[in-house]
Amino acid sequence: MKAISKIHLSDLVADSIINFILENNLKPGDCIPTEKEISTLLGIGKTSVREGIAALKAAGLLESRQGGRVYVMEINIESLLRPKSSLPLFQFIEMSGREELDLIVTRGTIEVAAMKEAAKHLTGETTKSLRSSCTQMAQNLSDVNLFIQYDKAFHKEIMLASGNFILPILFELLSDLYTKQFWEFSRRSQAMNRALDFHSKVCAALERGATNEAVEWLERHLADMEARLRGEHMQ
Amino acid sequence: MKAISKIHLSDLVADSIINFILENNLKPGDCIPTEKEISTLLGIGKTSVREGIAALKAAGLLESRQGGRVYVMEINIESLLRPKSSLPLFQFIEMSGREELDLIVTRGTIEVAAMKEAAKHLTGETTKSLRSSCTQMAQNLSDVNLFIQYDKAFHKEIMLASGNFILPILFELLSDLYTKQFWEFSRRSQAMNRALDFHSKVCAALERGATNEAVEWLERHLADMEARLRGEHMQ
DNA sequence: CGTTATTTGTCCGTATGTATT
DNA sequence: AAATACATACGGACAAATAAC
Known about the structure:
homodimer, Arc Repressor Mutant, subunit A, Four Helix Bundle (Hemerythrin (Met), subunit A), 2 domains, two-stranded antiparallel sheet, DNA-binding
């Protein structure tokens, strides 16, 4: 008989502040009452107030400047979706074979859609940027970390070139998982060389203006990783 | 001349705890040292320790019980992607016409991919569950909140039926935005009736075993919303 | 089963530094 | 230049819940 989850004062503070902002129609740039005011108003200690404010700062709704006040920030889709922690928690994750497959399949779906959209309004700068990342990958075949970094830049560029503002956000959300996955993938024989080859094909196609072909090579790149994962998974 | 970002003691605490867990190979369920032990061990005050722990609790790596200890929790992909605060922040969001379009386009990409996958291994239970949601929608045309709730259940069911464990997570991530968007969309003339019609068509097709047709109707449903948004956007 | 010790949760006072007003 | 307000940090006191005996 204790289904009631303990209510923390800091949560009440966070709710109160949200309600205060809504009721008083505060806009981004406005500031909320001082710590002491909130503390006396709600009749609780300043520690709890600070913790409640900290939660809202972590969520992106508030921002405080030392010596200044606590200001209301604009909440946009990116700040809503993006995890603020930046803690390296992905190292605690262990993906099953099935999860690895689902991840690469989902990645393929999203990324191919982005590439098709990007192909419709491709600029020379995007092509150049992609080629640059590709060159860097070729020069860093011996440094897996750097290789992955430029690989990530390559794929991020495609997501940005789609013109859809949500796709890069999803890519960033999943990118730590991609990195972890590719890191393990890179141990396989010739995995990096194969990846590099596909990237080069995409670049070459774009430079010839053959956008459809570029989409195909990207599809093959991700399908290739999927197939190799599936092969191991089946064994 | 102050590019150096200030180092917070609480960040050091968080890093130290992460390292402690990795070095001592702590597993979910194990507990970390007490506040006092960490405090004396690192030679810093209790406040900083508590803040560092609070950050890791917010991220989902730790959990604490009053009177008990601070325990290590399991980090899986879902908790990594969705540590999010559970605060109702979406009510602060105002989407531009362009953002609404990008959102529905992205949703279409993901959801149609899920539907195609789901169609490959569809069960009678899924079909029944979808029909049930559809019936509930029809009975709640006058209650927008309930209508949206069952609409969400319908689409969630499709994501789950895909068998891909990542797609429902992405759907949940974006679902507050979908809800907000559909809420505004519901004001349009006949918007809810149109949506209901498409859902019925999907169900009917599935009940006839015509999975390809079901995929088509889902595509048309999302494309219809996109087209109507695009129409307003152009005006 | 009850008592006690331990640990976290909450509250509060204090102090120093920093940036704004 | 001074006052204000927040950031950071320390630590004591008590309450509440758990764990150990």
